[in-house]
Amino acid sequence: MDQEEIDIYIETAEEGMQSAVERLQKELLKVRTGKASPAMFNGILAEYYGTQTPIGQMANISISDARTILIQPWEKTVIPNIEKAIFEANLGVTPQNDGELIRISIPPLTEERRKDLVKKVKQIGEEAKISIRNSRREAMDGIKQGVKDGYPEDMGKDMEARIQNKTNDYSEKVNHLVQGKEKEIMTI
């Protein structure tokens, strides 16, 4: 096994770690903090001419104030479909339809709900860390195999240390993102 193959293990691991952090960022955007955010509706699909379509592709989603979101569909006929999709997404909000647009008031979070959300955020963060550790394990296994196949042992140790440093860096990014979201949730 040569340096190029070892570099591929390291590169693949880093890509896996980076994608875990990016997934975490997307998931954290979906967690409601008591403030109006169009990102709450990312990933919610409603029926549009027989196809499940993201709400953002069939309507304009905007914020009118800190606790109110307006969803203005390009076609009024899809309003009931969007309403239904929001109900089914179980976001803890009630859409109000006036025939022209859907208005969503974000209720203030109770202390209990805030604590539940913090638990959820920690769980999402832990899933990201597991993904990072899995990427690390795969790279370490590849490096160990490389050493068995003739790659110099001291260079193998250096590569393992490099992978561990990347793992630590990405885990720290996860901690930082999770702590920021927890602070955002607990701020009244």
How would you characterize the overall build of this protein?
The chain is an alpha+beta fold and 188 residues long. It has two domains: 3-30 and 110-186, Ribosome-recycling factor (Topoisomerase I, Chain A, domain 4); 38-105, 2-Layer Sandwich (Gyrase A, domain 2). 59% of the residues lie in helices and 15% in strands. The chain has helices at residues 3-30, 79-89, 111-148, 153-186, and strands spanning 45-48, 51-54, 59-65, 68-73, 95-97, 102-105. The strands form two sheets. It has a four-stranded antiparallel beta sheet, covered by helices on one side. A two-stranded antiparallel ribbon has the order 1-2. The radius of gyration is 22 Å and the shape is elongated. The model has no long low-confidence stretch (mean pLDDT 89).
Provide the CATH superfamily of the largest domain.
Ribosome-recycling factor
As a percent range, the share of strand residues is: 5-15%
Question: What is the CATH architecture annotation of the largest domain?
Answer: Orthogonal Bundle
Overall domain count? 2
What is the fold's blueprint, element by element?
Elements (H helix, E strand, L loop, with lengths): L2 H28 L14 E4 L2 E4 L4 E7 L2 E6 L5 H11 L5 E3 L4 E4 L5 H38 L4 H34 L2
Antiparallel strand pairs: 1-2, 3-4, 4-6, 5-6
Helix pairs in contact: 1-3, 1-4, 3-4
Kindly summarize this structure in a few lines.
This protein is α+β, with helices and mostly antiparallel strands and 188 residues long. It contains 4 helices and 6 strands.
